[in-house]
Amino acid sequence: MQQASHEAFRRGGNMVLLSPTGSGKTLAYLLPLLQSMDPKADEVQALVLVPSRELAMQTQQVAARAATGIRSLAVYGGRPAMDEHRQMNGLRPQLIIGTPGRMLDHLQKGNITADGVRCLVIDEFDKSLELGFQQEMQAVTEYMPAKVRKVLLSATDSDKIPHFVGEMGGAVRLDFRGEGEARERIDRYVVHSPVKDKLETLAALLRTRGRERSIVFLGYRESVLRVASFLARQGFAVCDFHGGMDQKTRERNLFRFASGCSNVLVSTDLASRGLDIPDVDNAIHYHLPQDEATYTHRIGRTARWDATGRSFLLLGPEETFSSDVDLEEYGIPERLPAVLPPDWDTLYIGRGKKDKLSRGDVAGFMMKVAGLERDDLGTIRLHDHHAFVAVRRNRVTETLARIRNQKIKGMKTIIERIKA
């Protein structure tokens, strides 16, 4: 799929790419896009619209790691637009990835000049429409030069190309949804709850899965809070995730889950797309998916690339679900294993990239000052003004005692364990 996309991109013209979740669509368009850009030109040459903050940040990180010399910036809601404008002035980005509302805001204010934009990418365009971004996306397209190239991507079929995208006649259509789909690598089960309230059934199911990583999908924010609170009281290392959270909390919770410090993520369908979290073992449907597309995206969180995974559909006494794939009955034993905590825990560091802190600085501090071995140190993630680091759970207390009142890179800062 990446090769076909690269060849189509190189030939020029508009493109529509349909490919399963987890198959690498970001690389499929981003690598040829970066190669087509001029690293010596200071103007903005390409814009990428995405439906969520997380996808904007992840895409920008992929662009940065490609090390092509193209300067990229992610823009999104949840932080001051003025700060992003200052970043633009200093960085002079050639590629900007952002959510529709924030991208439009910068265009309207003149912070982004679209005169030099040669390519507009709309990733997960069907999800953006579903989330109600049609007006913002339409307004963004009206700022584009007449001959701008358009690339649209989605994991589900959509014959309804948004009308505001404009003329797409002659566009190359690449459809890889039938090749190597994750459905062939996902074992699908149904779990029957004896009562309408499925909390106890969910907890029992999770106990049978041990330390495996699971995403529990629900339809409403209020339900996410209720289910996450219940599981926490049962002793699970759980994080919640939904659109009503502030950006810092979302970053913290996603880090805890992606780094293995929490093995249960309870979320709305916001987590069904745009999150690049490897090694998710189970997709659990607490609330039934609204349609086939939602179901497809949910189970696409597991079995990414060539991995395998499982999908569990929880059904109450009065619920039914029709599927084109037979669902195997999953039996929960009467005697359940204990809740197992994950192997990792999270430390917060009150310094970040703006303080000239690097991952190497954090790793060196943790090994030299705290005495950790390399295997005791997990994922390190830096943000502008803070950082997160995963540490073996059985070394956390000792680590905190050793680094108390110590400076990192000559700087005083707060270093503390993040409470679940």
Number of domains: 3
Instruction: Give the CA-CA distance, first to last residue.
Output: 40 Å
Which structural class best describes the helix and strand composition? alpha/beta
- What is the makeup of the main sheet? 7 strands, parallel
Helical stretch count? 13
CATH homologous superfamily placement of the largest domain: P-loop containing nucleotide triphosphate hydrolases
Write structural notes for this entry.
The chain has about 425 residues and is an alpha/beta fold. It folds into 3 domains: about 1-175, P-loop containing nucleotide triphosphate hydrolases (Rossmann fold, 3-Layer(aba) Sandwich), CATH 3.40.50.300; about 180-330, P-loop containing nucleotide triphosphate hydrolases (Rossmann fold, 3-Layer(aba) Sandwich), CATH 3.40.50; about 345-415, Alpha-Beta Plaits (2-Layer Sandwich). The chain has 13 helices and 18 strands. The chain has helices at about 1-10, 25-35, 55-65, 80-90, 100-110, 125-130, 135-140, 200-210, 220-235, 245-260, 290-300, 360-370, 395-405, and strands spanning about 15-20, 45-50, 70-75, 95-100, 120, 150-155, 170-175, 185-190, 215, 240, 265, 280-285, 310-315, 330, 345-350, 375-380, 385-390, 415. The strands form 3 sheets. The protein has a 7-stranded parallel β-sheet with strand order 3-4-2-5-6-1-7, sandwiched between helices. Helix 1 runs parallel beside helix 2. The longest helix has 13 residues, at about 55-65. The radius of gyration is 22 Å and the shape is globular. The two termini are about 40 Å apart.
